[in-house]
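#data-curation
PF: Archiving a pair of folding outputs for the training set. Convention for this channel: one message per protein, sequence first, structure tokens after, nothing in between. First:
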Amino acid sequence: MAEVIFSKLGKVYSNGFRAVHGIDLTIRDGEFMVIVGPSGCAKSTTLRMLAGLETISDGEVRIGERVVNNLAPKSRGIAMVFQNYALYPHMTVRENLAFGLKLSRLPKKEIEEQVAEAAKILELDDLLDRLPRQLSGGQAQRVAVGRAIVKKPDVFLFDEPLSNLDAKLRASMRIRISDLHKHLKSSGKAATTVYVTHDQTEAMTMGDRICVMKLGHIMQVDTPDNLYHYPANMFVAGFIGSPEMNIKPSTLKKTAGQIGLTVGHYVLILSPEQQTKVESYCGQQVFFGVRPEFIHVSLTPFAENHSQGELVRMENMGHEFFLYIKVDDFELTCRLPSDEAQAIISEGLHQTVYFQFDMDKCHIFDAKTEKNISL
């Protein structure tokens, strides 16, 4: 059993700065939990408190049945993979993998077996006699992961482990680490994983669940799919997704007995379900959010429920285009498949285009609390 529980976990530094604000989080046994957020949100500080590398100011951390607040890192049953690999430069790959096991005074045969098992899982067999300086960045990171595996910890901790790799290697290592987690889990071994990153692509592709943090607070904990489609607040809506969600100020207005959003000079009528949820906000300023792929664009007006603007920029991404439409004093980002965009881009920039939202995919946020009131 390797469930991890944060209860009112807080961190205050000696200068009085509070980095973590009494967070509660349960990471299930065998779960791959990703903690994600912008720089300075205290995600690494939170991980380091779990690892025992930062003191805990408030609350407690439990690993399994034990409160580990006052335990040394080596006694917590964790293994950590760092951003900078932290390999011993004078030791071969084999010696790096075996080092921690030797400190634990395991029998030589058992050490050899565990090193061989980790090397096989991570395809390091041909690298065992090399020194770290003879390895590529991806190979060095695999060795760092292997060093964690051989310890057979209760919990794996990853602190931005891929940020030093190029884009292609990052994609490859994402798959390797995800596959490793699935392999350990399917073989009945401890597989609880806490992975910290600022990269939302890593978070969305790797995590069973994702914990989004901002300034030491947890904004939302949910599956990747739910975070994307049902963000609890404006911060999560804007942080998750690339290109990011369009979030713009608007007013909820009643027209002919129906409630809609003001977008430019038009009022876009909400779905009946949304109207029921936001009725009490009618007449108030709100923020609306819509993802770029849920905006339809045309050179001619739609039959109903549309607005218009000026096409001011476009980006060719190969399989799709990003179109940027200026509406009054703000700009909308639209995401269209290449074949759908061709008719529009062939007319060039600075033309009037018409757009329509998938209204049931729009989100409406309270202007003061930033809470998603359309859920």
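PF: Second:
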Amino acid sequence: MDDGKMTVRAVERALDILLCFTEEGELSLTEISAKVGLHKSTVHRLLASLEGKGFILRSPSTEKYRLGFRLWELAANLSQSDDPEVVLLPEMEHLRDELGETVSLYVRDGLERVRIQAVQSSQAIRRVAPVGARLPLYVGASSKVLVAFADASVLQQVLDSADWPAAMDRALFVQQLEEVRASGFAISIEEREVGAAAVAVPVFNRSQKLAAALAVSGPSNRLTAEKMREQAPVLMAFAARMGKMLH
């Protein structure tokens, strides 16, 4: 067989592997090998190439494979809609599965943030996040993200708002936003609701414009400040992939 035919066959086999995921979210090496009818060593080499290009992701904890962010980038270009709540839902579900807590997506609307998508935690004690909920921009991790990475005029509007709580220190809020910009994430513990905590990061689209805030929330006894700081890099990695799916 000449090199051209061998190359085409390798492409066909790689595509067969991708097609295994049309009905399954995650598959092991053994399962993929059985589906495509190839030896595991051959499948392993093809999976390594697909993983290297971002078409396949492997979970270190389960050793199972799932579709990667590159496919979602391609899918985003096929869609007539670039609505984040639609395009980003699969990745939000994966983030929920990885961290085990409720995942929410917020956008800014005037001086409020709106939850446009949520994936609920499956744990018995959880943070329930109704889609469509409107919340003020002066409190909460997602609010800090949406203000910190917005135009300076947005911050001024928030500070000048008639709804600004008299008990809140404006200088402290500004300082918190500076820390958010420096670290790339925000945390909140019982700022808006007793017993609740959240960590949030910005999602920038392909033009590097702020598109949304991605947040993970749950009971404050589980989501301690230390725990949320540990989770922040995971959120930022997911947010970076999500941003590539948005125009």
